Each structure stands twice: as C-alpha cells, then as structure tokens.
Amino acid sequence: NEDGGKPGRSYSLYDQASNLLTNVLNPGGSGNMPVAEGAVSDLFGRPLFFALYDWFMEHGPIYKLAFGPKAFVVISDPIIARHILRENTFGYDKGVLADILEPIMGKGLIPADLETWKGRRRAVVPAFHAAYLEAMVGVFGRCGQRTVDKLDGLLAGAGGEVRIDMEAEYSNLALDIIGISVFNYDFGSVTKESPIIQAVYGVLYEAEHRSTFYVPYWKFPPARWLVPRQRKFATDMAQINATLTDLINQARDTRQEEDLEALQQRDYSKVKDASLLRFLVDMRGEDATNQQLRDDLMTMLIAGHETTAAVLTWATFMLAQNPAAVAKAQEEVDRVLGDRQPSLADIKQLEFIRLIVAESLRLYPQPPLLIRRSLQPDTLPGGHNGHPEGHAIPAGTDLFISVYNVHRSPYCWNDPEAFRPERFQESRPGFEGWAGFDPSRSPGALYPNETMADFAYLPFGGGSRKCVGDQFAVMESVVGLAMLLRRYNIALAGTPEDVQMQTGATIHTKDGLWCRLSKRQPGTAVKAQEQAAVTV
Ligand code: HEM
Question: Residue 530 class from Cβ within 10 Å (0-12 exposed, 13-18 middle, 19+ buried)?
Fold first, then answer.
C-alpha cells in the first residue's frame, strides 16, 4: 500500500487481496461467459467497482470473476438485471450478503429467508403510508434545523467561513432522523456524543468491515473473545439490543389495537409517537415476536442511515463543482420555500432538487452492487451486445449486479459521467430488449425510477425486494439539501481529486468531505459566476 496503511483506514478487500487473490484470473471460465482477465494490481488502491467497470468495458454485459476459490458473475446490463430482480425474482436470494448481515440484522427484511421475508414485508410496507410520510417530513425539518443551528453557531464563532467535514454532519443528521422515525428514539447526535451513538456507529462500522472482508473469521467462536474489534462488536450489539428491547417493551405496554384505516385517518402531525415501531406494534403486534421486531428495527436503522447520508454527501460533492446547478437549485428553494420549514407539498414543487438527488444516486448508487445467489439453475439473457443464446448458470451461483456500471453505461445514458440532473426530463431511445428511458412511463412519480428507465436506473433496486424506504429517503434528502442550500454557499476545501472514495455497503469518502461553508443571504439566488468564484 502506497501510504503505508494509515490508522483507521479500512483496507478490507485490498489487504486480503494480497493473501487471497493470487488467483484473480480464473483461466477455466464457464461455458460461453467471458472471464475477467486483468492484473491483480487492478484491484489495489481503488474501490472494487472501478475495476468492475473496466472489465465491463472489456468483456461486455456479463462476465465471470474469480476471487481465489470463489467465483462471481458480474452483471452490468439492464436486461439481465431486470431478469434477476423482477422476472425471476424468487429464483434468487441474498447469498453472501445474508451470510454477512444475519448476525447483525437477524431475520430482518434484507437478509431474511423467503418465508420470513414474505410475512414481514406484508407487515412493514403498510407502515410507510401517506400520513406517516407526511409526518416524517416534519421530523426531517426539525432535525435539519438542528444541523442549521449548529452550523450557524460555528459560523458565528469563525468569522463567516468555516472548514467542516460535511459527510460527518450528514451522518449525524441521518442518524437522528432514523432513530426518531423508526423507533421514536432521539439520539441527538447532531449536538452530542453518547455511548449508544458510539455503539451504533461501532455496529455500522463492523457491518461495513464484514461486507468487504473476504474471510468470515467472526463466525469462529474464539474470534469473539480473541479479536478486540469482535469483542467491541459484541458489547455494542448488547447495548443496542438492550435499548431496542426497552423501546419494544414500552410500545407493547402502551399498545392500542388499531385498524389501518383508523390509523391512516388520524392527524399524524398531532400524534406524539408516529414511529414505525408504534405502527408495527399497534397494527399487528401479536404477529411478531420481540426478536422479530428487534430484527426489523435494526435492519431499518442500518438500511436507512448510511444510504441517505451518502446521498447528501455525494450530492454536495457534485454541487460544489457545478455552480450553475447550485444557482438553479437555490432559485428554486427561494421561490418554493422561502424561509418556511418544508412540507410534503413543497417537496413536490422542488423538482430540480429532487432531480439533483436522483442524479447523485445515479453517479453514486448506494449500495453500488446488489448481491444475489441463484436458488435454482437459470438461463440469463445475454444482454446488450452479449451472447445471443444467453448464459446457463447452475443453482448456487453468486452474482453481483453492478448498479454502478448500469448507471454509467454508455449504452444506456448520454454522456454518462456528466452531472446533469435535467437528463431525467429527457427521453432516450432503447435497443433490442431494452425500452430506453422515458419519463412518461411513470407519470407523477416522486423520483425517476426503474420503470421509466426499464431497469437502467436502480437507485432503490427493483422487483419484489425493492427498498421499502424509497419515498422516505427521497423526501429526507430533498429536505436536507433544500435547508442547507438556502442558507449556505458550500465549496470544496481542496480539489475534487483530494476526495477519495472507499466502499463498504455504501460509497463514502476516505477522509471526509471537507468543505468551506459560508453564509448566504436567504432569498438571493447566487449567480453562477459568483458561486464559481468561491468554489476552488
Ligand atoms: C432495500 C437503497 C433508504 C429500508 C434497499 C435496496 C436498495 C436500497 C438498493 C435493495 C437491495 C437489494 O435488492 O439487494 C436505499 C437507498 C436509500 C435507502 C439508496 C437512501 C437514499 C432506506 C430507508 C429505509 C430503507 C430510509 C427504512 C427506513 C430498506 C429495507 C430494504 C431495503 C428494509 C429491504 C427490502 C426487502 O428486501 O424487502 N434499499 N435505501 N432503505 N431498504 Fe433501502
């Protein structure tokens, strides 16, 4: 490693690569599927998805990649993604991902086996009803205001400009929001540190470590005592479980049986505890054990926290390099919102901000790879420019759908590397087997989605395992961005190249998103040239 391995940096895959990836190239291949051939060094010092992209350019829509004894099929094509995610959705489970996440999320929706998943998905999806989402917009605004108050305080003490790691700020904001909205627990992480916050970050960090570490050494019982990070993980889990169990017991003790219609008709803005936990206990509390509820809450805590923080981080990174987009966004926020806290109706009006969120998710999808394992033999379509007869795969095949590759595919997108939120207002013709991009295919949608793009755009996955928190997440990101853009001018503290990437479950920076923040006069849309002048 060139920098000698700074403390705190996770080398994860790359470290192990030196020991285990001596045989990245699997000369045998499988049937008619190309095999990725490159140097092992292709994988060093950069996130895995960069190498997967280069091999996509070289080998086409589907290829096989061998990691030591293990082989993965890598997919970079909307036609094949559509087949796996929608057309044969129950022919696949989460494979490696479930192995990694089960010790943390138990039988929560993401790693759950099919039977458990069916029951819990039916219970969880109705919890994201319209009245709940509307109430959550208020939570996003109140938590966003805390971040604004904190930044205002820092600016006041720093003479008008402050250097700050915005990734860390977004992470705190997203943690506070997810705690209140999922189980009505205020972490208060924007303003303070506490043992439970440390425990949650510890578990998130471990989830990430496990998702990028090749050997599941934590499965060997002695590792739990011998390896310090595994001892810490056990302590962190115990602390979070105790808090979640308390919250579940409290919710059960105050349970009121409700029917869905009555619940939805309530004025949620006046409900003290509008959390998902409250809903799950009141609606179908007897259906789920405490353990299952814990697993559901833990899953949503992890699934909903880092993903949204990452969207805000990369949106800010791109905006700081695109003054014209900032000017357009600020003009929209001034016009629609002025000084008010955002409402659901405002979010519908903040079209350009929504497109910024969508474009950030296209360039930096969270997670960048979807992981699946085939439960039965299947025949995958060849995909664009692929093998006309497709590819037979046996049961037990591990697959990566590289959302990063699909989102940046030159076959599906014009100028795919460019940050251009307006692209989602334009149509693009398709090719054989792919319907192209057409916004009119999903009229009135809150965000550009996989239906418009016929699976060339998968920010929240697609098919039966699609994200349950998609609308929640888009609204949260829009409120967060709108509240910051109307008050501050944000420039990168260094060059874009200084901001290096690292991947775990999501794409995040290696050393933080360091920005220079200064106050903006609310109500004065910054002209593109002026903004350019403050952007390094
Ligand atoms: C699933 C992305 C926010 C809960 C997924 C999947 C993606 C995704 C791509 C599909 C995974 C797969 O097919 O393997 C995102 C992004 C978010 C976000 C980009 C933020 C911008 C949230 C939030 C919640 C949530 C806020 C809950 C409060 C879930 C759950 C699943 C899931 C429970 C599993 C669904 C199932 O298997 O039935 N998410 N998510 N996500 N997400 Fe999200």
Answer: middle
